[in-house]
Amino acid sequence: MAIFVLLIAAALIACALPSEAAGPSPNQIKRLVTFGDSYSDVVLAGDNGTAWPIWTAIYGDFTLYPFARAGATCSQSLTPRVFPPVFQSQLPTYFAEVANHSISVPPEETVYTLWIGTNDVGVGELIDGQQNPGVTLVDTIQCKMDWITTLYETGARNFIMQNMLNLQDVILYQADSYPNKYWTAERNTSEWHIFMTELVASANKLTELMLKDLAPTLPGAHIGLFDSHKLFTDIHNNPSKYLNGTVPFNVTGAISSCVYPLNSNISAVTPDCTNAEGSAQDSYLWFDELHPSQQSDRVLARELTAGIKQQSSEFLTWLT
Ligand SMILES: *[C@@H]1O[C@H](CO)[C@@H](O)[C@H](O)[C@H]1NC(C)=O
Ligand SMILES: *[C@@H]1O[C@H](CO)[C@@H](O)[C@H](O)[C@H]1NC(C)=O
Ligand SMILES: *[C@@H]1O[C@H](CO)[C@@H](O)[C@H](O)[C@H]1NC(C)=O
Ligand SMILES: *[C@@H]1O[C@H](CO)[C@@H](O)[C@H](O)[C@H]1NC(C)=O
Ligand SMILES: *[C@@H]1O[C@H](CO)[C@@H](O)[C@H](O)[C@H]1NC(C)=O
Ligand SMILES: *[C@@H]1O[C@H](CO)[C@@H](O)[C@H](O)[C@H]1NC(C)=O
Fold first, then answer.
1. Nearest 5°: phi and psi at 296?
2. Residue 306 and residue 318 in contact, taking contact as beta carbons nearer than 8 Å
3. Of 3, 144, 163, 300, which residue is 20 to 30 A from 120 by alpha carbon distance?
4. Which atom belonging to ligand 6 lies closest to the Cα atom of 302?
5. Strand, coil or helix: what is 224?
6. Regarding beta strands 110-115 and 222-226, do their DSSP bridges make them parallel or antiparallel, or are they unpaired?
7. pTM
8. Atom 1 of ligand 3 has which residue's CA nearest to it?
9. Which ranges of the chain have pLDDT less than 70?
10. Closest Cα to atom 12, ligand 1: which residue?
11. Ligand 4 centroid – CA 272 distance (Å)
């Protein structure tokens, strides 16, 4: 009898769960806290203009607390660099600011975003084997999950994980790449292109599976996955849907394109640069050999805002 009652109770719970709405309600979110690398840095903006977190705050009418910093990886203990990593710098700064009340983050109305990985897999790390010994892609993705649990334990409840964009399409990792400010040494560009395609696809699948594993273990949390890869691939393949500058669409080159001599010291030589100016810039997918353009960032902000406000589920999927 008791077992029977339990079974009925379990069945009722199983029926009740799917009807619980995934994601915050449309007007619930008022504050945006961002973590990541130069793609999201609002001071050293990768697009050399206004970074997407600022556009998102404008479009969504959110108060913005930006912690992402150029050059960052997820953790210094996995993929060490001289730039401020999420775990050893950005999170401690966030916690210090919460503690001294310079920011206010009521759990219900605050959403946290993380867009990281470009530097973890990129030059100086996984692609050329300079991560700490034994560290793999699995560890760098686990680190992103640890970011969620670390914040959850301190009360945070709304999270958006932004997956990696199609890095194989940025100039640095194209098969016909040229020596640029991020890498002037000799390399096999075809090999890098192939390897980066694999790294990004694997990282994004791991992220999705590990998030789906983690989400049900965090009661009361809303966890969303923003598909940057799908969005930037779509801009790449269908630029007319997104780009709006005054010259023909350009999804292979950069607004600021600078060719360096092979094997040169970038601080000691003058590169050969071609720059697109003014309204022509909005025809470009990329700003330089590694970063999205400002128009790409506006599109990202528009789609992210629509996902947060539950007006579109094209790129943002709420798992819980
Ligand atoms: C609060 O902490 C942050 C991060 O350590 C620091 O930059 C800021 O100056 C502090 N503000 C106050 C009012 O103490
Ligand atoms: C570069 O890598 C590609 C793809 O693996 C390979 O086909 C090609 O032979 C390599 N080129 C050189 C010069 O090693
Ligand atoms: C795109 O921009 C790059 C860099 O300025 C240039 O070399 C290339 O010719 C452009 N491509 C098209 C299709 O306009
Ligand atoms: C980058 O931004 C600065 C400041 O607005 C500007 O002077 C510079 O021309 C921009 N670079 C390019 C390549 O547009
Ligand atoms: C690169 O050039 C800068 C400026 O000339 C110089 O200070 C630095 O030592 C050089 N680095 C290397 C590795 O040669
Ligand atoms: C392109 O569209 C954005 C809005 O997404 C707008 O802010 C920008 O001014 C437009 N660019 C041009 C050159 O019209």
1. -60, -40
2. no
3. 300
4. 5
5. strand
6. unpaired
7. 0.94
8. 253
9. 1-20
10. 100
11. 16
Instruction: From 244, 225, 119, select the one nearest 170 (Cα to Cα).
Output: 119
What sign has the CA pseudo-torsion 310, 286, 163, 69? negative
- Which atom of ligand 4 has the smallest separation from the CA of 277? 14
Q: Between β-strands 222-226 and 316-318, what pairing exists: parallel, antiparallel or unpaired?
A: antiparallel
Tokens for 134, please give them.
């034994």
In whole angstroms, what is the distance from residue 205 CA to residue 183 CA?
28
Is 2 touching ligand 5 by the criterion CB < 6 Å? no
Distance CA 149, CA 156 (A): 9
What is the C-alpha separation between 211 and 209, in angstroms, rounded?
A: 5
Mind spelling out the 3-state secondary structure of 154-213? CCCCEEEEECCCCHHHCHHHCCCCCCECCECCCCCHHHHHHHHHHHHHHHHHHHHHHHHH
Structure tokens at 79: 């993929």
Tokens for 253, please give them: 């080159």
Q: How far apart are alpha carbons 258 and 275 in whole angstroms? A: 8
- Specify the ligand 3 atom closest to the Cα of 247: 14
Token pair, residue 248, equals 């023909």
Could you count the other beta carbons within 10 Å of the beta carbon of residue 31?
18
The number of the ligand nearest the C-alpha atom of 190 reads 2
Q: pLDDT tens for residues 120-138?
A: 999 999 999 999 999 999 9
The type of residue at 280 is: A
**Closest residue by Cα to residue 36 from 27, 28, 45:** 45
Report d(CA 35, CA 112) in Å as an integer. Answer: 8
Q: How far apart are CA 287 and CA 269, in angstroms?
A: 21
> CB neighbours (10 Å) of residue 320?
20
To which residue do tokens 């050059």 refer? 71
| pLDDT tens sequence across 19-33 | 457 999 999 999 999
* Residue 94 one-letter amino acid: Y
Q: Hey, which of 267, 269, 270 would you mutate to test ligand 5's pocket, going by the most ligand atoms within 8 Å of its Cβ?
A: 267
